[in-house]
Each structure stands twice: as structure tokens, then as C-alpha cells.
């Protein structure tokens, strides 16, 4: 083969490879992307569907939502860990999956700080402490005084064992120096039935869960867990205002990609999320769902996770709780 023919062949091969790579990239870009949910239904699904619909344009691809519930969020977490890091799979995870589950399950099979690639925190939310509507307590100090005279009633409901409401209850117990026992339910629905009916003297859940029942007079929120009063509940003081400065808790929801996802892909998702979250329509939707729209960089979400792990680890350890 002459030199000219060799050069021509190499040029043709190079062009062919380049066209093939470009075609592959175009197919990958047009491929549907999925947002996995580690828990089934609820407000999380509403948020994911809202975001999926509005991120199609900035991502230039269809986006759909896939529920991956089970094992306290671990099924979805492991599916994310093992997904192909090509930008077609991300997961929307609440704080419980990356922060609390590794502290409470002996064989969680993932390390969130290494096995997930943070994209952005999209929302935060606080919690509320509520009692039945006919309970004599009108404030949280009233409830503490009532507990002191009714020690056999020192228990509270939470939507799930190992959840942030569970450990917020542990934090409250320490602050008031009364050992309150958690009654764990399988979700907020069953807990709310017993709380309204007075089968449990108190319950802890997200403000989004409790606010409509409070407004309807079916239960009474005595305190919220933020640093300041909630705009939706201006009449309800925080734990801090009522003399318990250590009782604070904030939940959040974040987007994560599989490990080893290229930074260019992370940045593409991050930009699409931030643009969507900053839209007035999305912010209003989040307010309706009891969420504060946030939007962070990947580095900021990493720092938030590290801070929450450092904060909750000693509280979880002191509780002695193990999920398995």
C-alpha cells in the first residue's frame, strides 16, 4: 500500500470514528433521563414530577420519574450507586438516605460521601411538635409540665423509626430531661390517626404533614424546629423561643448522580436544576408543599451532608437505635 493510500485510509478512519463518537454523543444526549425516588408517592413524587417536566428543555432530553422504594430508602440508594454514570440516571434523596441510614443500618452497603455524586440540594423543611386538639397544653413548656405530672405518658409518635422526627424526639428528651419513648408508625397517615384520636399524647413530623390538621383544629402544633418562626405558622413559636436553644432540626432533599459521573454531566444537571428551582412557579409549588426552595452547588451539598453527619451521629449513637 502506497504512502498516499495509507494516509487516505487513516484520514477516512479518523473521520469515521469522529462521526461515530458524535453520533453516540447525540444519542446519549437525546436519551431519556430518569429521576429515581427512594420512597414511594407523597409530596416527594409531586416535587419530582414538577421538576422533571420543567427540566426537559434545559437538559434537551425527556425526563421521567421512577419510584424505587424499599428498605428505608436503601433500594433506591443502591440502584443509584450501581447506575451507569452517563447522565441518564439521577436520584432525589431525602436527608434520611445519605445521612441517617448509614448510622442506623449495620449493612447499608453504601457510603454516601463516596458512593453518590452530589448535584444540588433543592429544598429544605422543618418539623413540628403537635398534640391532640383536646390536650390541655397550649405551649411546649405547658406540655413539659404536663409530662412531669403524667410520667406514664412520656412517649411520642413519629412516621418511621430511624427518621429525623425520631431523632428530633431524642434531642427533645435530652433538652427537657425526660426520657420520652418513640412510637414508630409506618408513615404519617397511621400516626396522624392515633394523634388526632389521642392514642399518643404527642407527635413529630414535617410541618407540611401537620399544618392542615392544625389549621382545621384537629390537632395543635406547639413548637417548630427552625431558627425562626415559619411564615405559614406565624402564631407558633420555635423551640428556641420557648427556652430550648438546642432543639433545632432541618430536613432537606437533594439530587445525586452515580459515583464517577463526569463533572461536565454534574454541571449540566446542576444548571438545569438551579434554573428550574429559581423560577417563580417552582418556588410557589414548593411553598404549597411546605418546602423552601434552595438550590446549591455540588460542593455546598457535600458540606451540608458532612455537617449533618457530624451533628446527628452522636445523637443517633446515644439513642442506641439500630434499624436491623
TrEMBL record:
It comes from the Bacteria. Transmembrane segments: none annotated. Pfam families: TctC. Gene3D superfamilies: Bordetella uptake gene, domain 1 (3.40.190.150), Periplasmic binding protein-like II (3.40.190.10). InterPro entries: BUG, Bug_dom1. PANTHER family: BLR1237 PROTEIN, TRICARBOXYLATE-BINDING PROTEIN. Belongs to the UPF0065 (bug) family. This is Tripartite tricarboxylate transporter substrate-binding protein.
Amino acid at each position: 500500500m502506497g504512502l498516499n493510500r495509507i494516509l487516505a485510509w487513516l484520514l477516512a478512519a479518523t473521520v469515521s470514528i469522529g462521526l461515530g463518537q458524535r453520533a453516540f454523543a447525540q444519542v446519549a444526549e437525546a436519551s431519556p433521563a430518569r429521576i429515581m425516588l427512594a420512597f414511594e408517592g407523597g409530596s416527594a413524587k409531586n416535587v419530582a414530577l414538577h421538576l422533571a417536566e420543567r427540566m426537559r428543555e434545559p437538559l434537551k432530553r425527556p425526563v421521567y420519574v421512577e419510584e424505587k422504594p424499599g428498605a428505608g430508602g436503601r433500594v433506591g440508594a443502591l440502584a443509584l450507586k450501581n447506575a451507569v454514570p452517563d447522565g441518564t440516571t439521577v436520584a432525589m434523596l431525602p436527608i434520611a438516605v445519605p445521612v441517617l441510614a448509614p448510622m442506623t443500618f449495620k449493612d447499608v452497603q453504601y457510603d454516601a460521601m463516596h458512593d453518590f455524586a452530589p448535584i444540588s440540594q433543592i429544598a429544605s423543611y422543618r418539623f413540628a411538635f403537635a398534640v391532640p386538639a383536646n390536650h390541655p397544653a397550649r405551649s411546649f413548656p405547658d406540655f413539659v409540665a404536663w409530662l412531669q405530672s403524667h410520667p406514664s405518658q412520656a412517649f411520642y409518635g413519629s412516621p418511621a423509626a430511624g427518621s429525623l422526627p425520631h431523632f428530633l424526639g431524642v434531642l427533645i428528651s435530652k433538652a427537657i430531661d425526660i426520657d420520652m419513648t418513640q412510637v414508630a408508625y409506618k408513615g404519617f397517615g397511621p400516626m396522624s390517626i392515633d394523634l388526632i384520636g389521642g392514642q399518643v399524647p404527642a407527635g413529630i413530623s414535617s410541618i407540611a404533614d401537620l399544618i392542615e390538621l392544625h389549621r382545621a383544629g384537629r390537632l395543635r402544633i406547639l413548637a417548630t424546629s427552625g431558627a425562626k418562626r415559619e411564615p405559614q405558622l406565624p402564631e407558633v413559636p420555635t423551640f428556641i423561643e420557648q427556652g430550648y436553644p438546642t432543639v433545632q432540626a432541618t430536613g432537606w432533599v437533594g439530587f445525586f448522580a452515580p459515583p464517577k459521573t463526569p463533572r461536565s454531566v454534574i454541571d449540566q444537571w446542576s444548571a438545569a436544576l438551579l434554573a428550574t428551582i429559581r423560577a417563580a412557579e417552582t418556588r410557589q409549588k414548593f411553598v404549597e408543599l411546605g418546602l423552601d426552595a434552595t438550590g446549591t452547588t455540588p460542593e455546598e451539598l457535600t458540606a451540608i451532608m458532612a455537617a449533618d453527619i457530624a451533628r446527628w451521629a452522636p445523637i443517633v449513637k446515644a439513642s442506641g437505635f439500630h434499624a436491623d
